[in-house]
């Protein structure tokens, strides 16, 4: 895997990842990471992506890893970053896929780049805050709800919350803890580095999730696959159901026995769907 630092000007840098092998014969998929993660592409999906001829490209969102913070970014900002990365790498069209908050970033990218994005997958993605007909916090763990309510109260409140916050294992369902013990132990290598420089990236992410996206996910014209676990305590499945109801483009695969992490066991099947629908 190649890594590079893309100069955005004005002293800002975006850290980029590119698996790149036999790139000319592969479908490029931009991976959008969750919160708090760095942008390393999902290694547990490499066997499936090799079989399907998929090239992963991704980046650390601003404030994480090697990317310069960008205070005030929203979900729509991702389209600008992806455009810059794709142009720098000589990529024309590409699919998008993301997990958790990254799924919502993937949808925003698809909404704003219809000429470049032929298909999108969102796994356990977040619906827009204040979405009509959705009790946005219902079903979240107590710690997750408190964290996002602090973001609703503004940056200062969110910073105070993160200064005192501790990891709450109850935010994940038992099936998620089992997934962490298996192939998705991979998360240990992307969460720790995301927090080494402090919680800045996480704070900017959560502020973006409770702010206007800067685009409407219902504007996506490409086919979209939504995956969600019925036991998800981080982003309840009602978010995926709302997104499916409000997009003429969307197919929802709901896995009643899965949680926020274990739903990724079905991600290889989603890659097959992505490959078929991105042609």
TrEMBL record:
<dbReference type="InterPro" id="IPR000073">
    <property type="entry name" value="AB_hydrolase_1"/>
</dbReference>
<dbReference type="Pfam" id="PF00561">
    <property type="entry name" value="Abhydrolase_1"/>
</dbReference>
<keyword id="KW-0378">Hydrolase</keyword>
<dbReference type="InterPro" id="IPR050471">
    <property type="entry name" value="AB_hydrolase"/>
</dbReference>
<dbReference type="GO" id="GO:0016787">
    <property type="term" value="F:hydrolase activity"/>
</dbReference>
<protein>
    <submittedName>
        <fullName>Alpha/beta hydrolase</fullName>
    </submittedName>
</protein>
<feature type="domain" description="AB hydrolase-1">
    <location>
        <begin position="29"/>
        <end position="264"/>
    </location>
</feature>
<dbReference type="InterPro" id="IPR029058">
    <property type="entry name" value="AB_hydrolase_fold"/>
</dbReference>
